[in-house]
## 1
Amino acid sequence: MKNIEKDPVILVDYSDIIKPHGQAFGDLGIVRDGSSKENKYVKGYMVTKIVGLSTKI
């Protein structure tokens, strides 16, 4: 932990990937379609992306 800066910048993004017509995808779940005006729930995946920014190499 000594290589971590005092005030690191860590970005976390929760997104979804919709597959409304998918049939053969493994572990397909139900997600809210963010591009839908009706806020429909469709088949898809939740995705979490984490990025850390640092001035150290």
## 2
Amino acid sequence: MGKRQRKVVANNKKARHDYFIEDTYEAGIVLTGTEIKSVRAGRVSIKESYAKIQNGEVILLGMNISPYEQGNRFNTDPLRPRKLLLHKKEIGKLLGLTTQQGLTLVPLQMYINEEGRAKIELAVARGKKNYDKRETLAKKDAQRKMEQAMKRR
């Protein structure tokens, strides 16, 4: 039996555009049976999602997992809040960062790891202003032009 590879199911490109990424954490996620089947089929969207800490637990809000086609009555609400699994020390650290420093918890990507478990890459992020976004785009454009000039040589 061969080794499995890490399979990226959903990516949040908008997060890197809208936020400065300070730190990242890997978190497990609590799913039902039909939800994990939809995740493995790639029917997930994390574009508008974010995480909050409530009662000592990290809750992911706004993530859309489309209902599984053969799930009938076992399907759950696609936008329901989902619990993320982190160590108590990590949750305490995240709580301090989000309350005192005004940072946000944003998922960057969702993937199935080598053991077949669904994981979320959660980022501690600081919001960008419009001028920061323009500056980032200008840097990318300049880098691309330099690379094209080097290829022509």
